[in-house]
From TrEMBL, chain A:
Cell location: Cell membrane
Protein name (database record): Carbohydrate ABC transporter permease
Residue ranges constituting the ABC transmembrane type-1 domain according to the UniProt record: 67-261
SUPFAM superfamilies in the record: MetI-like
Sequence intervals crossing the membrane: 7-28, 72-93, 102-124, 136-157, 178-200, 240-261
Broad class of the protein's primary localization: membrane
Organism: Paractinoplanes pyxinae
Automatic annotation (TrEMBL), chain B:
Keyword Zinc annotated: no
Compartmental location: Cell membrane
Keywords recorded for this protein, A-Z: Cell membrane, Membrane, Transmembrane, Transmembrane helix, Transport
Domain ABC transmembrane type-1: 88-299
Designated name of the protein: Sugar ABC transporter permease
The keyword Transmembrane helix is annotated on this UniProt entry: yes
Topology of the protein relative to the lipid bilayer: Multi-pass membrane protein
Superkingdom as given in the UniProt entry: Bacteria
Length: 276, 308
């Protein structure tokens, strides 16, 4: 009886999935074609694929250097979030101290303040005030502790059973020790979710690193590729091929990580972080 | 659920809770984050509002300059600027397309995905992948797809718009709206999937008893049950729209053609940083946030207010 709606549902879902995936397939194909072939049959080439576009983009944008910059930027944000975010999440979830309510209200408020309002003052402060233009610290600072991740950490520490903490305290363990050897090991899977969630932010971020880096040697790949798209692509032999090759290099790490750890993107974990 | 606090714990609370609380170490643990919030959010927030009421400009490093109070001058300049008005109009077009499309598609796809048994992982990953990929990377392929000689126009043949999508004043903003819908949809599907886990099965069972078909159940059980998530989806989609920058900067080459796809944040960048008028940009930022809050409030009333 329910067979027919099921067939329709699967058909529509697969059709939707194909539409969603097609640009990625086309990105890869386009990056391998020596001449852009935009006819319908050109989307399904049988021969003539080459890696020349990757060489071309690499000669104009220092791919390896940009990837290293992206890595340092992302790594710095992850380090700040994991180190300071977990302890803040723990303090917000499990410890009673003066000012906890105020800090938590502030955390909620921060979620509401949009980045565009902070854009100009942060630029004035970090680039003009502290002279951190073309500097990794300047790139990392505005994202150093991901507030959504703090929410997720707090949520996970809250879900741990109270008895566990009471028992550890009875055994005379200090609060820092309880955090380190009782709470953290238990939330390790959640830690991975938060790390993955935090990773895509700085790795994909364009606007802020674009504002603070003018020196090509300091630019993350998203910025150097964007500059290539908006400035120099018109001079290349096959501009789209080179752009798409760069796009594949930029997309690959995030997509690979996501597919490898897709089980960690458990819907309930993430929404608990977003909704607080 | 969680165990109730033990008697011993309660007694300890009374004994040890001092002025700094029961666990003063919590202050030290939370201090770096608190400092971060103060330096990166609270202070710039105040600075932004202050700047918008003063004559602020970039001076040589170390120079002491006066930034006189100018009242609402920056706001007046922003409100009367034709490019700003155009940008707000563009964002409105964006939101009118993006928000309903995002909400409807995300809910329908989440409901469909929720009952899927086969190829579950493949289907979910397909819808999430654009969300985890950098905008700059996928903008590259959209440029390729939608340029005048691109695949989309080869498929459409004579039906292709002239001038082509991204250089057509009527189509530039809608293409950006479709792009962002496609890019962000996975995240909103995720939110709805989480909400659907909390809809009590009994509601569907009693609807079945009352003779409701799938469509009826969707409208009378699912849609009301996920209403608070819908409010969240609408607000997050709204904030994404208000923050629009990368797409008009790259996809339509700096808000073109003729400013028909410029966004307020793009104008903030152009005026504030490229042309050195941070006070104007700060005022524009405040206006943008106020406009976002007003629209968010209206939406909240509209979606949640009827029977809550």
């Amino acid at each position: 009886m329910r067979r027919w709606p099921n067939v329709v549902r699967y058909f529509l879902l697969f059709l939707g999935a194909l539409i969603f995936l097609f640009p990625f397939y086309y990105m890869l194909i386009g990056s391998l074609q020596s001449e852009p072939d935009t006819s319908v049959s050109g989307a399904f080439p049988t021969s003539g694929l080459t890696l020349d576009n990757y060489k071309d983009i690499n000669s104009r944008v220092d791919l390896l250097g940009s990837l290293v910059n992206s890595g340092i930027f992302t790594g710095g944000v992850l380090l700040g979030t994991v180190v300071f975010g977990t302890v803040a999440g723990y303090a917000l979830a499990r410890l009673q101290w003066r000012g906890r309510g105020v800090l938590f209200a502030l955390v909620l408020l921060v979620q509401v303040i949009p980045f565009q309002l902070l854009l100009i003052p942060l630029y004035v402060l970090i680039v003009r005030g502290y002279g951190l233009a073309d500097n990794y610290l300047g790139m990392i600072l505005p994202f150093a502790i991901n507030t959504t991740a703090v929410f997720v950490f707090r949520q996970f520490f809250l879900q741990l059973p109270d008895d566990l903490f009471a028992a550890a305290r009875l055994d005379g363990a200090g609060e820092v020790r309880i955090l380190w050897s009782v709470a953290l090991p238990l939330v390790r899977p959640a830690l991975l979710t938060a790390v993955l969630l935090t990773f895509i932010g700085p790795w994909n971020e364009f606007l802020w690193p674009f504002l603070v880096t003018k020196d090509a040697d300091m630019q993350p790949l998203a910025v150097s590729l964007a500059n290539y798209i908006s400035n120099v692509s018109s001079r290349a032999a096959n501009p789209f091929g080179a752009i798409l090759a760069g796009a594949c290099v930029l997309a690959a790490p995030a997509v690979a990580l996501f597919i490898a750890f897709q089980r960690q993107f458990i819907s309930s974990d993430i929404s608990s972080g977003v909704k607080g | 659920m969680t165990a109730a606090p033990t008697v011993a714990g309660g007694a300890k609370r009374n004994r040890a809770a001092g002025f700094l609380g029961r666990h003063p170490v919590g202050m030290i643990l939370a201090a770096p984050y608190a400092v971060y919030l103060a330096v990166i959010f609270a202070y710039p927030f105040g600075f932004s509002v202050w700047m918008s009421f003063h004559d602020y400009f970039f001076a040589a490093p170390g120079a002491i300059v006066d930034h006189p109070f100018v009242g609402l001058d920056n706001y007046k300049a922003a409100v009367t600027d034709p490019a700003v008005r155009q940008a707000f109009k563009n964002i409105l077009i964006f939101l009118v397309i993006n928000v309903p499309l995002t909400t409807a598609l995300a809910l329908v796809l989440a409901v469909a995905l929720n009952r899927v048994v086969h190829a579950r992982t493949f289907l979910r990953v397909s819808f999430y992948v654009p969300y985890v990929t950098a905008s700059v990377a996928v903008v590259g392929v959209w440029l390729f797809l939608f340029n005048s000689g691109g695949l989309v126009n080869s498929i459409l043949g004579p039906l292709a718009p002239d001038p082509s999508w991204l250089v057509n004043e009527g189509w530039a903003m809608p293409v950006i709206a479709f792009f962002v819908t496609w890019k962000q949809l996975g995240f909103f599907i995720l939110l709805y999937l989480a909400a659907l886990q909390n809809v009590p099965k009994e509601l569907y069972e009693s609807a079945s008893v009352d003779g409701a078909n799938g469509w009826n159940k969707f409208w009378s059980v699912t849609v009301p049950a996920v209403r608070s998530s819908t409010a969240l989806v609408v607000i997050l989609a709204l904030i994404t729209g208000a923050n629009l920058f990368t797409e008009p900067y790259l996809l339509t080459g700096g808000g073109g053609p003729n400013g028909s796809s410029a966004s307020p944040v793009l104008i903030m960048y152009q005026r504030g940083i490229q042309q050195g008028e941070p006070d104007f940009a700060a005022a524009l930022g405040v206006l943008l946030v106020l406009a976002t809050l007003v629209v968010a409030y209206i939406n909240r009333r509209f979606i949640e207010g009827r029977d809550s």
